[in-house]
Design goal:
- The complex is a heterodimer of chains A (228) and B (389).
- Chain A is α/β, with parallel strands linked by helices.
- Chain A has 7 helices and 10 strands.
- Helix content of chain A is 35%, strand content 29%.
- In chain A, the strands form 2 sheets. Chain A has a 6-stranded mixed beta sheet, with helices on both faces.
- In chain A, strand 7 (163-167), helix 6 (175-192) and strand 8 form a beta-alpha-beta unit.
- Chain A is globular and about 50 Å long.
- Chain B has 389 residues and is of the alpha+beta class.
- Chain B contains 12 helices and 13 strands.
- In chain B, the strands form 3 sheets. In chain B, strands 1, 3, 4, 5, 6, 7, 8, 10 and 11 form a 9-stranded mixed beta sheet that branches. Chain B has a two-stranded antiparallel ribbon with strand order 2-9.
- In chain B, helix 2 crosses helix 10.
- The two termini of chain B are 30 Å apart.
- The model of chain B has no long low-confidence stretch (mean pLDDT 87).
- Classes of the chains: A alpha/beta (228), B alpha+beta (389).
- The complex binds adenosine-5'-triphosphate and magnesium ion.
- The site of magnesium ion (MG) has 4 residues of chain A, from helix 1.
């Protein structure tokens, strides 16, 4: 079990009152899943993804990620979990602008104190997996949106994390590029058994998902397993 | 690891970084330069004072107070014999001091009249020039400043009026025989110099003097009831004059340092504001908040280090050049009562250089850290979105 959530609620305090963004959610995600949190804008997908990633904490309820009970972990422990076992992919890529493709992908390995020699081999492998070997020395501003997102994917998987969290990874991409990056991630999921959790309302993504958690107004109203 | 990332970020930021570094390094240069000029000025004033006034020290008549001309009337007596012996062997010189008035062009100018041993080589005053005079008037040596003020030139004659030992007024005709250029306004303004024997006769003070200056290679202990004034004592008021100027120097130091600090602080605050998304991303990638703070602090501190290196490379040669050839000063400060060279050699002491580099570094470290602290209060979710609050 890679994620285990029980009666999780998240409330935001805005304008003098509480807004319930996630309402009594219970959910279990197994190793190697290729799963989507699906729902309309404002339904709470990003909020849930952030809590799973340890970037935010629940107001009530329990959550374990990668066998760590997240409710009681410290900031330091959560940073460690993310660094070692998670990868993040964002809608707007979030690449570091002054870094080349190589350096962006290398960053998680540097953070994990991997020595230079094995870094190189891993970085080249990850860049190869997303098909960007010819852009190794380019800066993000010299890349297309699709190439940026592929760089971000390489960065998310370079340290072979158990879990990759992707928030609307195709929202800024055209159809062709969306399919390309979904194919890449599907392959990574199969090859390395890396679990993927997407937050999306993009129809194009849904065709690739093996499981869809439908969220509406902070509640799960349907848990759909897709038979291939 | 953080150092590599920090350097990458700084170099990657390109022109913004270098502009910052340049401005900081200009400030460092200005701090070192102005401190060097200050020290150089101080040193020069000391040197000039010793060269033209103090030599190895002096014996004063017990009543003599150079800052109170009223005392001059009573501050003369027969020079103690131990001192006259020194004068005769060219190891000391006598000076007799009195108030007087001169009348150039019908104006009255109160002056301090000083009779001095002409053959002396102890003080850098061209007294030997007076020896060349063969006329019948009272031969007078004055400084360039005094010459300008009284409009007296070589060969000009004028009436001198003085009070002799019997408290009766007497007068005679003086003639300018030489005009000296001296960096020391204290031997120039309000002073007329003449042969001591001549003055002793004029004032009926045979064999009398007010003070005796001795050479710096001897050190007589005592001379009757005359008071010994060593170099340290004589230089003291010089030092206080310069010390009075110290707050200004410190003020400049502080202003320049604040400028450098504000530059970095500003750049740092802006950089954190603009790079919020990057900060959030680093947190999502598992960099600890403390490390992110450290990273940004290091980036700021690197600015300081680059600036110090740039100062050495860019301004080092200039500072070196000045320390050898001096800095020409366009203004004549002597009217302001300051002993300043026409070409001032700045002096950079090693402690000054090290202290400046260290203080700059520490302050820049602090102003790099202060804005970076904000990062630890950022919520990663907000930061990732690049939401600016
Ligand atoms: N930091 C916050 N403070 C206050 N309210 C918030 C905060 N973050 C999210 N919300 C609210 O919680 C709800 C869920 O937000 P969330 O971002 O999870 O939606 P989403 O499903 O990801 O939407 P989208 O598809 O538009 O990204 C929204 O109504 C949003 O306004
Ligand atoms: Mg969202």
């Amino acid at each position: 079990m890679i994620v285990k959530i029980k009666n999780l609620t998240k409330k935001f305090y805005i304008g003098g009152s509480f807004f319930t963004a996630l309402d009594n959610i219970s959910l279990e995600i197994k190793n190697g899943e290729f799963l989507g949190l699906v729902g309309a804008s404002g339904s709470g997908k990003t909020t849930l993804l952030n809590i799973i990633g340890g970037l935010d904490s629940p107001t009530s309820g329990e959550i374990s990620v990668l066998n760590q009970f997240m409710n009681t972990t410290s900031h330091t422990e959560r940073a460690l979990i993310r660094r070692k076992n998670m990868g993040f992919i964002f809608q707007s890529y979030n690449l570091l602008p002054v870094y080349s493709v190589y350096e962006n992908v290398e960053l998680p390995l540097i953070l994990n104190n991997i020595d230079k020699k094995s870094r190189r081999q891993k970085v080249l492998e990850a860049i190869d997996a997303v098909g960007l070997s010819d852009k190794i020395n380019s800066r993000p501003n010299q890349l297309s949106g699709g190439q940026c997102q592929r760089t971000a994917i390489a960065r998310a998987i370079v340290h072979k994390p158990a879990l990759v969290l992707a928030d609307e990874p195709t929202a800024n991409l055209d159809s062709e590029n969306s399919h390309l990056i979904m194919e890449i991630m599907k392959k990574l999921n199969t090859n390395y058994n890396t679990s993927f959790i997407f937050a999306t309302h993009d129809e194009k993504i849904m065709g690739y998902l093996k499981r869809m958690i439908h969220i509406e107004d902070g509640k799960i109203f349907k848990d759909e397993k897709i038979k291939l | 690891m953080l150092f590599n990332i920090a350097i990458k970020n700084l170099v990657g930021a390109g022109i913004r970084t270098w502009l910052n570094v340049f401005v900081t390094s200009v400030s460092i240069f200005m701090i070192i330069f102005s401190s060097g000029m200050y020290t150089g000025m101080k040193q020069h004033a000391m040197n000039v004072s010793i060269d033209t006034e103090i030599a190895g020290g002096a014996f004063w008549h017990p009543n003599y107070d150079p800052y109170d001309p009223i005392t001059f009337e009573d501050s003369h007596s027969i020079t103690p014999s131990i001192l006259t012996e020194l004068v005769e062997s060219n190891k000391a010189l006598e000076v007799l001091v009195s108030q007087a008035s001169i009348y150039p062009d019908g104006r009255v100018v109160p002056v301090i009249m000083k009779g001095i041993t002409l053959e002396q080589e102890i003080l850098n005053i061209p007294t030997k020039e007076i020896l060349k005079y063969e006329g019948d008037n009272i031969p007078i040596l004055i400084g360039r400043g005094m010459s300008k003020y009284t409009k007296l030139n070589i060969g000009d004659t004028f009436i001198i009026r003085w009070m002799d030992d019997n408290r009766t007024y007497d007068a005679g005709l003086g003639e300018i025989v030489f005009i000296m250029d001296s960096d020391n306004f204290k031997i120039d303004f309000g002073h007329i110099w003449l042969p001591i024997e001549k003055m002793q006769k004029m004032l009926s003070m045979e064999n009398e003097s007010t003070y005796v200056v001795f050479d710096d290679n001897i050190n007589p202990h005592s001379a009757g009831d005359w008071i010994k004034r060593d170099v340290k004592y004589l230089i003291r008021d010089m030092e206080t004059i310069i010390e009075q100027d110290r707050p200004n120097a410190i003020m400049i130091y502080i202003i320049l340092l604040s400028l450098a600090a504000m530059g970095i602080f500003n750049a740092q605050t802006l950089s954190i504001f603009r790079r919020k998304k990057e900060i959030g991303t680093l947190m999502a990638l598992g960099m600890h908040k403390r490390k992110v703070v450290l990273l940004f602090t290091i980036e700021g501190a690197m600015n300081a280090i680059f600036a110090i290196i740039l100062t050495v490379l860019l301004f080092g040669p200039l500072l070196y050049y000045f320390s050898i050839y001096g800095v020409p000063l366009p203004i004549d400060y002597s009217d302001m009562g300051l002993i300043i060279a026409k070409r001032l050699i700045p002096i950079y002491s090693m402690p000054l250089l090290v202290a400046t580099a260290l203080i700059v570094f520490l302050i820049l470290l602090l102003v790099s850290y202060l804005p970076s602290r904000k990062i630890s209060k950022m919520h990663p979710v907000d930061a990732i979105r690049g939401k600016t609050t």
